[in-house]
Design a protein that fits this description.
Layout lengths: L2 E4 L9 H16 L3 E6 L11 H12 L5 E5 L4 H13 L3 E4 L3 H7 L33 E4 L6 E5 L3 E5 L1 H4 L4 E3 L7 H11 L4 E5 L6 H10 L7 E5 L2 E2 L15 H6 L4 H11 L10 H7 L10 E2 L2 H8 L4
Parallel strand pairs: 1-2, 2-3, 9-10, 11-12
Antiparallel strand pairs: 4-5, 5-8, 6-7
This protein binds glutamic acid and zinc ion.
The site of glutamic acid has 7 residues, from loops.
Length: 313
């Protein structure tokens, strides 16, 4: 049976934008009899907010979403990430890097800035040939040797994606100092361990996919997942939905006693299911069709929030 995962990061509260992606993921899964694993991506130490994980589970349940296994916690899987890192080191797929962010920025001062502020690593510490290494430098971070050339994959929603990963991000980090695993490494190891072969997520992660594939292939991990990357919800200013656009946290709507059917009604409209009307999660399953989900980002309008809070009908 195919398997997918809902993977909230407890780095902040779930807002309408995240909720839409989770609802789409859940609905495709339930329509096609995929199993659903709940995984809490709680590895990003300093950014983890206390209680956010409990809240994510609560609001997903409040919306009417469910899952078949989990929650699993990335923070309890550290030994396995470390074993994967050792395996990459043994295979000569990574190398140690002691560059500071400032040094990297200086080396590429003329290069254009990416929106996510990720700098392309210029390869300063790259060895002249791949070699087997030890993870013996506590102060170093660890980078993946990205081959030159195009990386590509077929996305079931977004279509063919091609990127020259070496030119876009260069040798990316698979672990930080003290060999703490990066998101890219952890997600690949988890998906393989949990046998996830269907991944539905926001298209902000489209360009992470080639990196994840490089890691997966280097580790010889199966299965190769199929992907659906769906556009995000943005504010009227064109930026990704966030606090500056008002309080769209699901927990806030719940505290205001707004019916989850209202929230799903709005998300359904944002999924191309026709005019907004109150509906439950099971009703959403009847009307949802991935083919009708808009290919462009959804722009949240001020009136959308009024509809939720009942100040307009
Ligand atoms: N936890 C990640 C997020 O919320 C998703 C990870 C993934 O889908 O690979 O953005
Ligand atoms: Zn370096």
């Amino acid at each position: 049976m195919p398997r997918t995962r809902l993977a909230p990061s407890p780095t902040g509260a779930l807002h309408l934008g995240n909720a839409r992606t989770f609802l789409i993921n859940w609905a495709i899964a339930r329509q096609h009899d995929w199993q659903i694993v709940l995984r809490i991506d709680d590895l990003d130490g300093p950014r983890i907010k206390r209680g956010a994980e409990r809240e994510a589970v609560d609001v997903l349940t409040w919306l009417g979403l469910d899952w078949d296994e989990g929650p699993f916690y990335q923070s309890q899987n550290r030994d396995i990430y470390h074993a994967a890192l050792v395996s990459l080191a043994n295979r000569g797929k990574i190398y140690s890097c002691t560059c500071t962010r400032t040094r990297i920025a200086a080396a590429i001062a003329s290069a254009p800035h990416r929106e996510d502020h990720e700098l392309r690593y210029p390869g300063t510490c790259r060895p002249s040939a791949p070699k087997r290494i030890e993870l013996d430098d506590e102060a170093a971070s660890w980078r993946f040797l990205v081959p030159a050339g195009e990386q590509q994959f077929r996305d079931e929603f977004a279509g063919d994606f091609v990127e020259e990963t070496q030119l876009v991000v260069g040798d990316f980090r698979v672990a930080g100092v003290g060999a703490t695993p990066s998101y890219q490494l952890a997600v690949v190891v988890d998906d393989a361990q949990q046998n996830v072969d269907r991944i539905v997520r926001g298209d902000d992660l489209l360009s992470s996919t080639p990196r994840q594939k490089l890691i997966r292939v280097a580790l010889g991990l199966q299965p190769e997942p199929q992907y659906w990357h769906v556009p995000l919800v943005i504010g009227p200013d064109g930026r990704r939905l966030a606090k500056r656009h008002g309080d769209t946290r699901l927990s806030a709507y719940r505290e205001l006693d707004i019916a989850p059917e209202r929230v799903i009604g709005l998300l359904a409209e944002w999924c191309g299911c026709g005019e907004r009307r109150e509906m439950s999660a099971p009703e959403f399953l009847d009307v949802f069709d991935i083919e009708r989900v808009p290919k462009l980002p959804i722009v949240m309008q001020p009136g959308d929030d009024d509809w939720l809070t009942g100040s307009s009908m």
